[in-house]
Design goal:
Keywords: Membrane, Ribonucleoprotein, Ribosomal protein, Transmembrane, Transmembrane helix
Protein name: Ribosomal protein L35AE/L33A
Strand content: 35-45%
Largest sheet: 4 strands, antiparallel
Organism: Nocardioides albus
Helix content: 25-40%
Strand order of the largest sheet: 1-5-6-7
Shape: elongated
Radius of gyration: 25 Å
Number of domains: 2
Number of strands: 8
Order of helices and strands: HEEEEEEEE
């Protein structure tokens, strides 16, 4: 009444197949993560934090379209960002980081985009 799956050799085969399956699964997951981060834009130059003024927040879909401005390098820069209502509500703040050599290049919360200069602070 012995079958191959209950013998030590059968158990080793099952364990081997299980191990190979785990390696393939985790290898595929690792490959997907690497591909996602490899294609992410370089943000290492966006290092300076700015003071943000929120001008408007319009409810759109699952979140808010927020317009804001921040002063940098003698000008005021205007930006817009779509924020999910799970992570942001009117009355909350927004953090902005920008490139000190090119203040239009900035990130508001986690969304990176270009800003438009709207006036001088000097």
């Amino acid at each position: 009444m012995s079958s191959e799956s209950s013998s030590p050799v059968g158990c080793l085969k099952v364990l081997g197949l299980f191990s190979v399956g785990l390696i393939v699964l985790f290898g595929g997951f690792f490959l997907v993560v690497v591909m996602l981060f490899r294609n992410a834009p370089d943000q290492s130059h966006i290092t300076t934090y700015g003071e943000v003024t929120i001008h408007d927040a319009v409810e759109r879909g699952r979140g808010y379209q927020v317009s804001y401005s921040y002063p940098a390098e003698g000008q005021v820069w205007l930006g817009n960002v779509q924020l999910d209502r799970v992570h942001w509500r009117p009355g909350n703040t927004i953090s902005v980081r920008f490139d000190p050599d090119n203040p239009a290049d900035h990130c508001a919360n986690t969304s990176c985009t270009e800003a438009t200069p709207v006036g001088s602070t000097r």
